[in-house]
Amino acid sequence: MSRPLSVPLTRRQLALAAGLGALLPPGLSHAAPPYPVTSQQRNTAQQVASQGVPLSELAPNAPDSYTVKRGDTLWGISSLFLRSPWRWPELWGMNLEQIRNPHLIYPGQLLVLVKGDGYAKLAIGQPVDTGTRDGQLHPHVREIESTDLPISSVPMHLLMPFLNDAVVFEQDQLTMAPRIAATQEGRMLVSRGEEAYVRGDVSGARQWQIFRPARPIIDPDNGVVLGYEGRHVGVAQVTALGDTTEREDDKVVHPSTVVITQLREEATLGDRLLPLPDSDKAPFVPHAPAQPLSGRVAAIYGDSLNAGQNQIVILNRGAMQGVERGHVLALWRAGRQRMDTTSPDRITLQLPDQRSGLMFVFRVYQRASFALILQTNDPVRVGERFTAP
Fold this sequence. Notes:
Blueprint: H1 11-17, H2 39-49, E1 53-54, E2 65-67, H3 74-81, H4 88-93, E3 110-116, E4 119-125, H5 156-159, E5 167-169, E6 179-182, E7 189-190, E8 195-199, E9 207-211, E10 215-218, E11 225-230, E12 232-240, E13 256-263, E14 267-268, E15 272-275, E16 294-300, E17 306-307, E18 312-315, E19 328-333, E20 337-339, E21 348-350, E22 354-364, E23 369-376, E24 380-381, E25 385-387
Antiparallel strand pairs: 1-4, 2-3, 3-4, 5-11, 6-8, 7-14, 8-13, 9-12, 9-15, 10-11, 12-13, 16-18, 16-25, 17-24, 18-23, 19-22, 19-25, 20-21, 22-23
């Protein structure tokens, strides 16, 4: 049974940590609605909170204190204090009474690292006036600007374009979906603000997502089709309905009219349409898999042959294999072969695989997942291996 950590604080540390009410902005209390914290993450936090984190787990240059800034992320702050930034429950659990949930960390808050007896804890506080009339330290309430929002887990500006646009279909339903069949001027490409003419029933929605015809995602391990990648092109809005049903003996068909409202790349004849889903706003936080997990990169999102930092890859593992939204995974570069030039036999040496980066899973399907590459030392190619970090 672990024992609670009792660390004698210096006057400076007490002064820094005195503002314990700074965690929540005015109008919020600790009875706020629950956040998506898994039981495993909470158990980790509870365990760590009882004693803190071993000093060996701290980053080599972990600061004594850090003031949260706008634009910071939980991932970035964790990397300041810990060797492994995905181990955020330890950082959060250093003082569970204060940091009740990582989604409630705001710009302007001061994070103070308190060390003692081989362990470290994190406290939230702010500099206070130590020269009070009674010589005592008093908690101060800090006002938070209404424009200050809780910091996000990872760089959300990189993920937002893909939260709805990155799609894997279990079956190739795009084959039967409505399609762009013509343009007013007979051109192949359609730009934003221009009209296009669609065959198929688009009466069920006003806003439609435009996709290139789907392409299969092949598992590098066994050649099995994992699903079909829907490559997002843009968004169209229906302005006039044409024939919603067609008969085999129809000689002339009146298509529906759509206007292109958003484009990632120019739409073209043959592109398919599906109803635009609601925006995916479910929060998530980085965490390591609870069980061993490994697989391979099955595809690079888009047309690239390889991917770098802040790009998207598709993995050959999904919910069926235990992949979760928020999983952090390690990328591995296959070990090279080298000839032993020091020996007369000139035998071939198989060098071990080298860890080359980290990625963050943000969308999970049954047999495949999308991940954002957070860091990498080398270009990432199809077939490269990943494991739990």
